[in-house]
Amino acid sequence: MIQETAEPATPVRNFSVQLSSTPRGARLARLLATEQLRAWGLPLDPARQIVAELATNAATHGRVQGRDFRLLLYVVGDTLRIEVTDTRGDRMPCTQLPAPEAESGRGLLLVDALADRWGCAPGPPPRKTVWAEVALPPDCRNPCSGATGGLSQEPRG
């Protein structure tokens, strides 16, 4: 017996890449995320800036010599979720106001301002994942996620 499977009208949108925990890897994360968002037809901002901040944090504060970090983007219903996983589960992020003259330390404040939600989840040791979610405009939502319905009731012919 042969079974046919119906393919979704729109593929599920997800993108994952493993990058070196270096400034170059963080820059590449931002560039690759920008191109993926563009290919999906999604707004570039604020997601591009959130990816830049989370990837920079992974390369700076989550760096362990010889270990990479992972960037994951996916769309669920009306939400783009951005996840960056590094191998420093012992260093959980926290927001704090830097000194006015400090040249760094504002990344998570930017993520907090730009994302609709964000947080951190411990992973299997030694990992942690810092994630952020951004609401998508109605014309960019993923109809295959099942979150909002959207199955066509038109007869097939």
User: How is the main sheet built?
Assistant: 5 strands, antiparallel
Work out the radius of gyration: 18 Å
Kindly name the structural category.
Answer: alpha+beta
Helix content: 25-40%
Spatial order of the strands in the main sheet?
1-2-3-5-4
Could you give the order of the helices and strands? EHHEEHEE
- How widely separated are the two ends? 25 Å
Please give the count of helices.
Answer: 3
Q: What is the residue-averaged pLDDT?
A: 84
Instruction: List the uncertain runs.
Output: 146-157
Shape assignment: globular
Q: What proportion of the residues form beta strands (DSSP E)?
A: 15-25%
How many DSSP-defined strands?
5
Features:
157 residues; alpha+beta; five-stranded antiparallel sheet; 5 strands; 24% strand
Q: What does it look like?
A:
The chain has 157 residues and is of the alpha+beta class. It contains 3 helices and 5 strands. It has a 5-stranded antiparallel β-sheet, with helices on one face. α1 packs antiparallel against α2 and α2 (47-60) runs antiparallel to α3 (107-114). The chain is globular and about 40 Å long. Mean pLDDT is 84; it is low at 146-157.
What is the strand and helix layout of this fold?
Elements lengths: L13 E7 L2 H18 L6 H14 L7 E9 L2 E8 L20 H8 L2 E6 L5 E8 L22
Antiparallel strand pairs: 1-2, 2-3, 3-5, 4-5
Give a summary of the structure in a few sentences.
With 157 residues, the protein is an alpha+beta fold. The protein has helices at 23-40, 47-60, 107-114, and strands at residues 14-20, 68-76, 79-86, 117-122, 128-135. α1 runs antiparallel to α2 (47-60) and α2 (47-60) packs antiparallel against α3.
